[in-house]
Design brief:
This protein is of the alpha/beta class. It is 25% helix and 27% strand. The strands form 3 sheets. Strands 3, 5, 6, 10, 11, 18 and 19 form a 7-stranded mixed beta sheet that branches. Strands 8-7-2-1-4-9 form a 6-stranded mixed beta sheet, with no helix packed on it. The protein starts with 5 loop residues before the first strand and ends with a strand.
Amino acid sequence: MNAGTLRGPALIANGQGRFALETVEVEPPHFGEVRVAMAAAGVCHTDHASMRWAGPLVMGHEGAGYIEQIGDGVEGLTVGQPVLLNWAIPCGHCFQCDLGAEALCERTHELDVAHLGTSRAHTGATRLRGEPVQRAFHLGTFAHHTVVRAEAITPLPHDMPLDLACILGCAVMTGVGSAVNVAAVLPGDSVAVIGCGGVGLNVVQGARIAGASTIVAIDRVRSRLTRARAMGATHTLLAESDDPRAERLIAAVRDIVSRGVDHAFEATGVADLAFLPLHMARHGGNALQVSGAHGPATLELPRLFWNKRYIAPLYGGCVPARDFPRLFDWIAQGRIDLANQVTHRYRLDELERAFADMHDGRAGKVVLRIA
């Protein structure tokens, strides 16, 4: 091993639907890089899907930890500083970054191959049995250490617990940002949110912060609807299995807002539901698919009538320098609730149980405590 290389556990997906806790070597950071000692990582459905991406792969894309070592050329950061990791990493000078669309950074997405990276900081910095191993979303947060580009790091307030802060880097930013940045919900607007898991609950919170007067939360699990009500939903609707075309659900939304809502969000991750927001949005309204659902779905073109806008936003339109400080302020003001989102915490070696509780609806937001 090179001087300064660290050994530690990491959860490695094999690309065939399985994972294992392995020991990896993490090298020191090179120019423009930072090595982070991970403290906590959020778990979501994307992490479960990553078990079938090209492997071997260090899993995990939500995370917070402490700066362990800083490479040359990095300014404004200090060893020991608590930090949040951001998977949509802006370079700051490509076409998209110049437009202010930093979540669409061309440098990051040109490196992206099936959600993986190909630069040294994305592969060669971490090795499994001496061979470079890829890391989910250029991060690989289900590990004791990771090396990332400095642009992936946002310093955290020193008083923010890292087992709560870790979910800011995906679930919270995606949900709140989709409501505030992308849909641009206005005071008095009406909103429907289909799916009240990690992202959906934060769409609810974002809509409340933006001043929506009607927020209809929809889910098949009653406990999620209870959490949605606590976070700002004005109405809740239970999705039932004997309503496969969601006809009763659509009618129920229309009973609340007869013309249809101003903004309807899908946050289930189920491809068959990707176009359901179009049935609930009014003419001229917004329908947003914020879950990143994959797979085929059928759309009847008249559902786009009239003047409806269908949007599949990435990461809530995140601009890190603008959005993360704003999220920190809203948390300090009590306008964003993190504590009641994170319902279950697990050790790194308990990921199988974490996935099971997440899929069964027993858990809200799930977090791995890494150190």
